[in-house]
Specification:
26% strand, 163 residues
Length: 163
């Protein structure tokens, strides 16, 4: 995926518009505008994105291409970090930095505040996540995906019934 491409994400059933700008490390930076805007006047490199994560390359075919922009120095220096954690062993936690070959082993406490590293592979899943970030309501898989801290949490019980 070529860095700097800007796409409109077709999230139906939600007011406002989501955009995605591809980054050099194969991450999508996501932006939200609640009102109609003149897209030609927006420089996405000057605004802060509200969410970042991986998107399956096939999914970009379902996004609406808007234009290509250069990557600003600010964007180059704002590489996000994510976490991976075993569902069965909460002490098995790793830091994931885009562009870095291997995840770094760490304690779960080092990952507090980070987003879980995921790859979205459907419009429904990415729209559900983006909408949940805007309206502050967790997605249906929030409990499975959240970071667990030793001493406070237990490994995820896949046999438990959802609330």
């Amino acid at each position: 995926m070529q860095a700097g491409k800007v796409y409109r994400i077709p999230c139906k059933e939600f007011s406002g518009t989501f955009y995605c700008k591809t980054m050099p490390w194969k991450i999508g930076n996501f932006y939200y505008f609640s009102a109609d805007i003149n897209i030609a006047e927006i420089n996405f490199g000057e605004i802060d994105f509200f969410y970042a994560n991986w998107v399956n390359i096939r999914l970009y075919k379902e996004f609406e291409f808007i234009r290509k922009e250069s990557i600003t120095e600010k964007e180059q220096n704002s590489i996000p970090r994510f976490f991976r954690q075993s569902f069965y062993n909460i002490n098995d936690c790793k830091l994931v930095t885009p562009g870095q070959a291997d995840a770094i082993p760490c304690s779960p406490e080092d990952c507090i505040g980070l987003e879980r590293a995921v790859v979205y592979d459907s419009i429904d899943s990415i729209c559900e996540k983006l909408i949940s970030k805007i309206n502050g309501k967790p997605t249906w898989d929030h409990e499975i995906m959240r970071l667990r801290i030793p001493g406070k949490d237990k490994p995820f019980d896949f046999n438990a019934k959802p609330h």
